[in-house]
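Two proteins follow. First one:
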Amino acid sequence: MAQIYTGPESTERPLSMSRHETSPTTVQPAGNHRPNACCFCWCCCCSCSWNEDRERAWRASRDTKLETIPNCEACLKPTPDEVQGWAQSFDKLMKNPAGRNVFREFLRTEYSEENMLFWLACEELKNECNKHTIDEKARMIYEDYISILSPKEVSLDSRVREVINKKMQEPSTHTFDDAQLQIYTLMHRDSYPRFLNSAIYRALQQSVSRSSSES
């Protein structure tokens, strides 16, 4: 009988950590946008007014103390039309690197950033061709987001977990397709409506609108 993959063996459960204390997995940009000197990211690597607006929005969004997000996707500053389009369609938001960055920051304020990190990791896995690399990345994704021992475990139902455990016997670029869709749906139905009403998104709309009128 074929063995079901259940992740690495462990006799102890790691010390629990709050979600904002975990270190996100490094991900590669999913889009082909080229960054410029005023990239739309949350590393505060430049002192432009864009980052100042972003900082004010971030401080207004929550009273909790959060670190800025590392390893964000490099991308161009979004246009007013792009930002407005994110309110019309979750698909548009998720297909835009800048949209994913700002949505990821919002998820961080709700301590659910791992949902976006998992989705991005699955997208990265789909771009791999080398069998050894696919095996390694699939196991890293499992240990980081599927294992019940991980502080970044995403919320999946038992059916999807069973499917993943079977597919991990022979990992492929599609091992996590069902799980990725379930997390995408969760973000769409649960987090996205709150994001549209958040201080982060409202401040971003005002910022790009003001920048456009001044140019």
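Second one, unrelated to the first:
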Amino acid sequence: MDDPESEDEVYEVVDLTEYARRHQWWSRVFGSNSGPIAEKYSVATQIMMGGVTGWCAGYVFQRVGKLAATAVGGGFLLLQIANHSGYVQVDWKKVEKDVNKAKKRLKKKANKAAPEINTFIEEATDFIKRNIVVSSGFVGGFFLGLAS
């Protein structure tokens, strides 16, 4: 019976919902309330809902990204052709001066993080902690949507 090569090994089935109720580490890691969605639907339903919405968002993000990249690249190509043909003359010294001025402004503003951004990040983190299963399904679906 203690033979490690035995084919008749017995495995214990672990019910994750009961385990999470009995062990309070979940509350310590993800907060006292693990979310309203977690209490209403099963884990499989949450992952499916997150995955489907993530896939849709990823697919739309991919299509819009391709369109935007094509538009910017095409516009840049047309400007280069116009510049090479002599239709457009670029004052590179003025461009460099304006870019340096914009860099200085950005550095000044970047050091002062807006409180709205910090509040938004805290709210997003809190939402993800409360809805960890749906969020993980969303991330996986988003990457699948980007790949398709």
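SUMMARY FIELD: Residues 43 and 133 are 7 Å apart (CA to CA). Residues 43-85 form the longest helix (43 residues).
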